[in-house]
Amino acid sequence: METVVITGGSRGIGLALSQRFLALGYHVITSYRGTPSAAQMALADSSRLTLLELEVTNSDSVVQFAADVKTALAGRPLDILINNAGVIGPDAQAFDTVEAQAWLETLSVNTIAPLMVSRALLPLMTEAKRPRLVSISSQMSSLVGTGLGMYAYRSAKAALNKVMQVLSMEQAEHGIVVCPIDPGWVQTDMGGDAADITVDVCANGIAAVVEGLTMAQTGQFLTWEGSVRPW
Ligand SMILES: NC(=O)c1ccc[n+]([C@@H]2O[C@H](COP(=O)([O-])OP(=O)(O)OC[C@H]3O[C@@H](n4cnc5c(N)ncnc54)[C@H](OP(=O)(O)O)[C@@H]3O)[C@@H](O)[C@H]2O)c1
């Protein structure tokens, strides 16, 4: 049985990914802030689910989370890490309105935290047969995109992509596949009701991509359907 860690599992894509990987037979370790959501608690019937507290921007919380994950693994390696927790950032993100502090907080969650969580958990992955590490990015990061505004979110996800590309090169000698993944525009609290795809379609797609990842793909920016997305 393989184990997957999914950050930000209280709702949205992280919750749907937890459901999908449980259905696929994995041991799922997923996080909440404060207390687990009702939807997470509803998954807790499964003996293959572990719920752990994690605030991704708090270094003490990240250290404790890694220790708790190690305990939950009980000597087995961690096969998959999905850095999913993220925020859209402040309402005001236009050229005239974006403020530095709110922008920094967006970078903290979306760019810096995924590397800190990865650094804390990578030692648990080195013995896995096919270790895979993915971070949920966004099409709004794309350098060939033409969308305007949303400076905090776009820059945070574009920077996340670069962080993951560097990490992929550094981890290649250890055989760890590292990819940022664009989940599409998804019907969640963040994506809104008008989004293109349901959260289950998104999660099923990402799970299939993650299951099949090989070293040939490391360092690529992939879509939830598995194709290569231009940076
Ligand atoms: N929905 C879309 O269309 C879309 C498109 C592109 C990319 N994405 C990305 O996909 C990921 C998931 O998005 P979503 O739509 O599922 O968003 P969501 O419904 O807003 O859920 C966000 C999740 O991240 C958690 N989280 C946020 N900040 C955190 C922190 N500081 N520490 C720990 N957990 C934190 C939230 O926990 P709480 O419940 O405690 O707040 C929640 O579980 C994000 O990285 C997002 O940027 C989404």
Automatic annotation (TrEMBL):
Known CDD domains for this protein? Answer: carb_red_sniffer_like_SDR_c
Q: Which UniProt keywords apply?
A: NADP, Oxidoreductase
InterPro entries (alphabetical): Fungal_SecMetab_SDRs (IPR051468), NAD(P)-bd_dom_sf (IPR036291), SDR_fam (IPR002347)
SUPFAM superfamilies per UniProt: NAD(P)-binding Rossmann-fold domains
Single Gene Ontology MF annotation: oxidoreductase activity
Which domain of life does the UniProt lineage start with?
A: Bacteria
Record's GO cellular component terms: cytoplasm
PANTHER family given in the database record: NADB-LER2, SHORT-CHAIN DEHYDROGENASE/REDUCTASE
Give the protein's recorded name.
Short chain dehydrogenase
